[in-house]
Specification:
This protein has 144 residues and is an alpha/beta fold. The chain folds into two domains: 48 residues; 88 residues, Immunoglobulin-like (Sandwich), CATH 2.60.40.420. The protein contains one helix and nine strands; from the N terminus they run αβββββββββ. β8 and β9 form a beta hairpin. The chain is rod-shaped. The N and C termini lie far apart (93 Å).
Length: 144
């Protein structure tokens, strides 16, 4: 092995090291730009949503609609008369499954986007429910 070969190899390694360092910096910048773009896009989609949607609703019509949107039940709480039918409609782009905390109603099938599930509440009381896929999602039906 000659001295000339060693210096060329070392020079090549040094150049490769600088190139890899520059690529790492570029990738970090690209990652930051992508994260910012995703954040801005998410904020843009949230503008059309109803952050001030009522948290509770009283119903006299015999039918009540509960939207499933942005991993939330809207309204979160409804007060209904006995005999009222509550319909949950999934407006999210992910599936949800509505279940009663104490089996007051038969669980829904998995609800894909724009699918609905209904239950008629005939007995006075409080029914706490959730999404069994996303347990942090909870709601309440108060039957009078």
């Amino acid at each position: 092995m000659s001295i000339h070969n060693l210096s060329v190899r070392n020079c090549g390694r040094a150049h490769l090291g600088r190139l890899l360092s520059a690529m790492r910096a570029w990738l970090k910048a690209e990652t930051l730009v992508c994260a910012l773009a995703v954040g801005v896009a998410l904020l843009g989609t949230m503008q059309g949503r109803e952050p001030s949607a009522p948290q509770s609703m009283a119903a006299d019509s015999g039918k009540v609609e509960v939207r499933i949107d942005n991993f939330s039940f809207l309204p979160k709480e409804v007060t209904v008369a006995a005999g009222t039918t509550v319909t949950w409609t999934n407006e999210d782009d992910v599936p949800h499954l509505v279940v009663s905390a104490d089996d007051q109603f038969k669980k829904s099938p998995v609800l894909d986007t724009n699918e609905s599930f209904s239950c008629k509440f005939t007995t006075a009381g409080i029914c706490v429910y959730s999404c069994s896929i996303h347990p942090h999602m909870t709601g309440k039906v108060i039957v009078q």
